[in-house]
Amino acid sequence: MEETANMDGMGNNEGRFAFIGGKYIESSGGEIVTRRSPVDGRELPEIGSCSVADVDKAVLAARRSFESKVWRNKPADEKKEILFKFAALIQKNSAELALRDVLSMGKPIRDCLTNDIPLAVKYIRWYAEAIDKLYDQCVPPHPGSIATITREPLGVVAGITPWNFPMENVAWKIAPALAAGNSLILKPAEQATFSALYLGKLAQEAGIPEGVLNILPGKGEITGKYLALHPDVDGVFFTGSNAIGKEILTYAGQSNMKRVSLECGGKSAFIILKECDHLEDAAQTLVKNIFFNQGQICSAPSRLIVETGVQEKVLKLLLRLAPNYQPANPLENKTTSGAMVDHDHLDNVLRYVSIGKKEGAKLLVGGERVEPVKGGAYMTPAIFTDVKNDMRVAQEEIFGPVLSVISVRDEREAVETANASSFGLAAAVWCDEINRAHRVARDLRVGTVHVNCYGEDDVTAPFGGFKQSGNGGKEKSLDAIDAY
């Protein structure tokens, strides 16, 4: 029997409901996900893990809405108006959405209110504004003939999102998918489900037609896997680990060869060359980006590659700045660093701290479990020196506030060290000699290179990586619409 639910407020049972075909429906199968808040260990509402039957229902609802053309053939100005209203409702409900994300994954509430949610609103508005500015093409193959090239939506697409920036990453999937005219099934991470589920209510209010946006909570190995295997899903757009990304590629091949787009993390290099005179700016930018969001960022600059001539000065600056990122209660407005997403992830990050010590790296500061809030999952930001690039702490994505400092002799060794990685998402080069900086940037095998800055990405620029950082379409920019 299906049961509808009122999703206003964080009720004890709300996570058991999926949003399918414009309604909240209790997930079937009986599988649940139980979690405690990383903020203080309090029990969170149970999350239902949508079953194969639930995925089938969502795919059917999405397929019906797509084939009915209720969204894809809607006039562009009407689609824009609906998406603008959707963005406005997200903004209006920002306090509710922020609280859900803080309790779910420990992010400071200030970051939710000043970064994640405003960016989600911006992305949806930006793609809404682009809808009537995307044109098909007409080409003359030879005299006397014309060929038209028409851009069409893929159809039914699945968006599988991570937990580290819950609202922002959800918007990265929803905005271009709907702008392109698709019907979307959103599968949020188990660690950040409650804000995504609340979007179903806002989608209804905005006027997004039934079945165009569906939201399935659940376990990745059940709900996410079957979305990737489903023969009537035309594309899967995934952000997460490269191990899961590889599985999704396999599932797509085993089923209907659906389009797959993957953004799978990184081990990004932050290069400081000896010609850099603004070391204070470089150090401030580095600590902000490696310790922001507790280091749980796919493009975090977790490898500092620094020329020996300036290494000592840089290390002194890092030691002075690191205390600014000590964890505190995420529910307090002044907090800049909150909790790790959960105790299991905290244990894994601390395990890497132990591995680094055993490998011979020197722990300069931090790397300790602390409890600014009793029962929470917190650690102090860690900096390793004497790191060799073949150490695990330099090669594996830790996804926590851990910086590895690698010393190099010159520019050539800096580039070789940066590129000696299975990842290739982002990098930075800091150098006052602009020609040299851009020469290094061209030689780096990564998707985004920052010159004398970091984290200045914008919706107008495509985002995605090389190698095991992902493949397929890019996130953000008009390139994202092309992928859908």
Please characterize this protein's 3D structure:
This protein is an alpha/beta fold and 484 residues long. The chain folds into two domains: 14-264 and 472-483, Aldehyde Dehydrogenase, Chain A, domain 1, CATH 3.40.605.10; 269-458, Aldehyde Dehydrogenase, Chain A, domain 2 (3-Layer(aba) Sandwich). Helix content is 40%, strand content 17%. It contains 15 helices and 23 strands. The strands form seven sheets. It has a seven-stranded mixed beta sheet, sandwiched between helices. Helix 3 runs antiparallel to helix 6 (194-206). The longest helix has 22 residues, at 109-130. It is globular, with a radius of gyration of 23 Å. It starts with 16 loop residues before the first strand and ends with a helix.
CATH topology of the largest domain: Aldehyde Dehydrogenase, Chain A, domain 1
What distance separates the N and C termini?
A: 35 Å
* CATH homologous superfamily designation of the largest domain: Aldehyde Dehydrogenase, Chain A, domain 1
- Provide the low-confidence segments as ranges: 1-10
Mean pLDDT: 95
Please tag this protein with its features.
single chain; 484 residues; alpha/beta; Aldehyde Dehydrogenase, Chain A, domain 1; Aldehyde Dehydrogenase, Chain A, domain 2; 2 domains; 15 helices; globular
What layout of secondary structure does this protein have?
Elements: E1 17-20, E2 23-26, E3 32-33, E4 47-48, H1 52-68, H2 76-92, H3 94-105, H4 109-130, E5 137-139, E6 147-149, E7 156-160, H5 166-179, E8 183-187, H6 194-206, E9 213-215, H7 220-229, E10 235-239, H8 242-254, E11 259-263, E12 269-272, H9 279-291, E13 303-307, H10 308-321, H11 343-359, E14 362-365, E15 369-370, E16 378-379, E17 382-385, H12 392-395, E18 402-408, H13 411-419, E19 423-424, E20 426-430, H14 434-443, E21 448-451, E22 466-467, E23 470-471, H15 477-483
Parallel strand pairs: 7-8, 7-10, 8-9, 10-11, 12-13, 12-20, 13-18, 17-18, 20-21
Antiparallel strand pairs: 1-2, 3-4, 5-6, 11-23, 14-17, 15-16, 19-22
Helix pairs in contact: 1-7, 2-4, 2-6, 3-4, 3-6, 4-5, 9-10
